[in-house]
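Hey, I was hoping to borrow your eyes for a little while. No rush at all, and the record is pasted right below:
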Amino acid sequence: MTIWSPDLTGRTGPRYIAIADALAGDIQAGRLGAGDQLPTHRALADALGVTVGTITRAYAEAARRGLIGGEVGRGTYVRGQADRTNALFVASRRPESRPNTPLIADMRHNFAPRLTQDDSINRALAALAGENIEPFLAYQTHEGMAEHRAAGSEWVALSGVAAEPDRLLVTCGGQHGTAIAFNSLLEPGDTLLTEALTYPGVRTLARMLRLRIQGIAMDSEGLIPEAFEAACRQGSPRALYCMPTMQNPTGTVMSVERRRAVAEIAERYGVALIEDDVYGYLIDNAPPPLMSYAPTQGYYLTSLSKCIAPGLRIGYLVVPPNQTDRFLPAMQASVWMAAPLMAEIARRLIADGTAHRLADARRQEARARQNLARHALGSLGWRANPVALHGWLRLSDSWRAEDFAIAAAAKGAPVTPVGAFAVNRTKEQAVRICLGAASDRTCLARALGELANLAVAAPEPYLSVV
């Protein structure tokens, strides 16, 4: 059992919150590590001179934040970083403040903004209702119907992916495409490389598949090729997952020269290059995809969730020539096939130009929302592409990222702290702010104003952590 006693010096507010905050601080500082067993409720209560009930509430609060877990008869343990990821999305406010905190805009979720007064999808559904839909209600091939794969090939071509339909699989969105790629290209125990800060869903998926995940250093252009090559030399990674265009969470865009370098390294070392391009549609004339430079190692995935409608759950996975069959067992085992009815709706929206128009409308809205963000946060460490739906706010030395997230949620504008994205331990203090979920620009501007005021203020005493 770890002999741990929190330093509560200078902490105000409820004692159980102070203990939970001190526990969070000691974990972040490395004084407590994954698997460390904490003192019993009675032992810690005696050490601090508080009641057992106070310790029980403190441990419950820490468990709510995803910091600790336990089983009857085994004790209470510090959870691993990966296990804490999901809690960083939800935790973050003092419990007693929740009922009185009106939500201005939830800025944790990277949703595309809603488009008002657009009935394009309604019209597509009405047209489909008047036709024979029996083929779309029956079992189809795992990779998708031929016409749906052809539509996907047309759609990805807009991003510079020249792929014949027989190299494309229709998936149930981008997350499913990622799962199919991981299941088909990696085995339990294999090393998966990602950017040092990456999409939390990938970390969760890697944990479920028992993969070793390793973060690669980044700079203002994203993943650093030299760091990627060093990882290839020092280990035997099987795959690299990355987002070269509008990286999540930092919003970086990799240059053409860097894309060539990354692709060449992947080809030379035989590392599968899994490219997630779900935000690429936002940029006009974006650089060519990595697959363009890695013909044997490049795998490309995207979805219609960010640009058309998340409820369609349609995405596309493009693989190198003659490799489609390798991915069919994972398709069969997971969903058998993407829903043909949804894929048919997507096909029609692509064919008649509706998908292109909706994507363009969202590009325009994203640009307007980034203008608001730049106006509010531009002088405060804000980093974002001018048309991105999210951005990265680096905090002043007075703030820790998780504390800022707690305070932001209390202001009605919750954000996501760096810990949710960090593959390795990081000293960076920053938060991701998403702009699309706000119901309108007025709500967004108000929420951004609250965050700007918070960024220049000092943390309240109860938020301080050692």
